[in-house]
Amino acid sequence: MATFASLGLSEWLMEQCKQMGIARPTQVQENCIPAILEGRDCMGCAKTGSGKTAAFVLPVLQKLAEDPYGIFCLVLTPTRLELAYQIAEQFRVLGKPLGLKDCIIVGGMDMVAQALELSKKPHIVVATPGRLADHIRSSDTFNMKRIRFLILDEADRLLEQGCTDFTKDLEVILGVVPAKRQTLLFSATLTDTLQELKSIAMNKPFFWENKSDVRTVEELDQRYLLAPEKVKDAYLVHLIQKFQDEHDDWSIIIFTNTCKNCQILTMMLREFRFPAISLHSMMKQRQRFANLAKFKSNIFKVLIATDVAARGLDIPTVQVVINHNTPGLPKIYIHRVGRTARAGRRGVSITLVTQYDIHLVNAIEEQIQAKLKEYPVEEKEVLKILTQVNVTRRQCEIKLESTDFDEKKEINKKKQMILEGKDPDLQEKRKNELAKIKKEKKKFKEKIQETIQKKKRKMQKNKLKTTRGRVQEQA
Ligand SMILES: Nc1ncnc2c1ncn2[C@@H]1O[C@H](COP(=O)(O)OP(=O)(O)OP(=O)(O)O)[C@@H](O)[C@H]1O
Ligand SMILES: [Mg+2]
Fold first, then answer.
1. Record: fold of 11-209
2. How far, in Å, is the centroid of ligand 1 from the Cα of 119?
């Protein structure tokens, strides 16, 4: 059996691994680390939760220790803060003895502060392509000419043309990084985009893939539950109630298809007194991050998320993943259910399947090379709560529509501004500044008025005193 020492890892890094509770390399680490240390490009396709992050973090840190400078390594990830932060944290924890400087460049955060950080030459930059490309286009205070490692985590997502298309931004980034570099590509689902990936990793990359037939992990118990659309929510409430009753220590991620559904389900589950919190792409970045932190620290035990949380997130306490909708693509299914049963732990996934989704389940089963088993449920129990659940959902929908109205108005105003060529954020900032100045002016005016009044009162008092004095004298 391989050890980190046999892979050529330095003593100090092995000590860091030990402190993190990492004793032996996983298969992807065992196979990819030596190739990376040799200086080869690398493509690693390994199952969810199998330690792909450390498979690139460890060799990069070893090379960085030999020749430390900034910017040494650039890591690209498709999703914002959550995943980028997680990767940066692994670098930070494992690279602590190096006094590692890292920097996270993602959308939704202050661009000026980010530019300042970039100019300080951090060793590691973890970024989403869109925001990093913006910095490259607009600033000359940093350069990536000497980058030694370019890493694409969730590489297939970065290259596919989904609702967020990264290809243009990737072109910009690839234009400023040196041709002589090591390129490392990782994902649990690399095979669809293999050819495009090979063109990014130019130097005959070392390719490693899990050899097992089944593409999900053994420790995952994969279930489905046939539920007509109208009773889906009742099944969901029933399932969560069951987990709450049967386990002391439990935590669940529920995936759903839209931001709106995510909001409604969260409101609905809260009406049933479940500690639920949401994570979706329409939320502000800071809010998303705060919600995720509350879920991670177990304050909230149910996270309702869209596919922003489907990839990469590593939350060891998650024992259950529920797919409120059957994912349309097998690949998304693989990443979603991979949020549980990580690093050798056990986990359960339950996919709610309506009469219209059977073909999707077939496609999933074909891809993962395994059959989902039916999850047994006592229908009677579900029927008991059916009306109450559906009424509650309707109430939540009405509530959301009314609160959403103002928000939509604000969004439309912003859209209009963009169409007129104005920057809504800048306008907002100016508006706030103007309001501040007006407020200060008002305060100042009030103060002046007050002093004038005071003086007037004093003068009147004095006048009164002198007339009284005169009257008394005359008397
Ligand atoms: N050699 C190891 N032994 C035990 N645990 C490990 C080892 N390497 C990494 N881990 C832990 O395994 C967990 C999952 O790792 P990681 O997030 O890197 O998985 P991944 O392969 O990137 O999964 P995904 O495809 O979902 O992104 C982490 O908590 C990490 O600390
Ligand atoms: Mg990962």
1. Rossmann fold (3.40.50)
2. 31
